[in-house]
């Protein structure tokens, strides 16, 4: 076989393998975004709420804590928040400690992320969890963000990581979530948070 034909066949094979790899990675990321694995542990050391404005993640985290899931809630409070969202988050953070059933106290601790991104929230929350001696976390976010949040926390936190979405889902369309979160998921795979 001539060297020119051999080079052409090798180039075609390399291109096909690259396309297959991109397709498999894209389908894997899309599955992770659209059909995430959610957890529902009985008890954790702390519940972590990553920032988000248009769903019930804060109310849901508090409900889980009041039901006995945890005695501590860590809440990401980005410094860039503004308007009704920032006001609601300020009020939520000021409501500590919360008294649950039978007089049990739930501490709400709000923190500024290291950087105003999911990675920054992860690194700040895991640092706080280590300082407090927490060995298990439940992270609350919206459905499309579950897999990426899980990946970041598993990269950074040595203990048990559980992730769940909220009962009242974010009104973000599947298409928008798929585009945004698939890119974020691939970034998390390529560039670990920790």
Computed Rg: 20 Å
Q: What's the rounded overall pLDDT mean? A: 84
Termini, distance in Å? 49 Å
Quickly give the structural class: alpha/beta
Give me the strand/helix succession.
Answer: HEHEHEEHEHEH
Total of DSSP H or I helical runs spanning 4+ residues: 6
Key words describing this protein structure:
194 residues; single chain; alpha/beta
Structural commentary:
Helix content is 50%, strand content 14%. It is an alpha/beta fold and 194 residues long. Helix 2 links the parallel strand 1 and strand 2. It is elongated.
Quick structural overview:
The protein is of the alpha/beta class and 194 residues long. It is built from six helices and six strands, in the order H-E-H-E-H-E-E-H-E-H-E-H. The protein is elongated and about 85 Å long.
What topology does this entry show?
Elements: H1 3-34, E1 46-49, H2 57-66, E2 72-76, H3 83-94, E3 98-99, E4 105-111, H4 118-132, E5 136-140, H5 146-156, E6 160-164, H6 174-190
Parallel strand pairs: 1-2, 1-5, 2-4, 5-6
Antiparallel strand pairs: 3-4
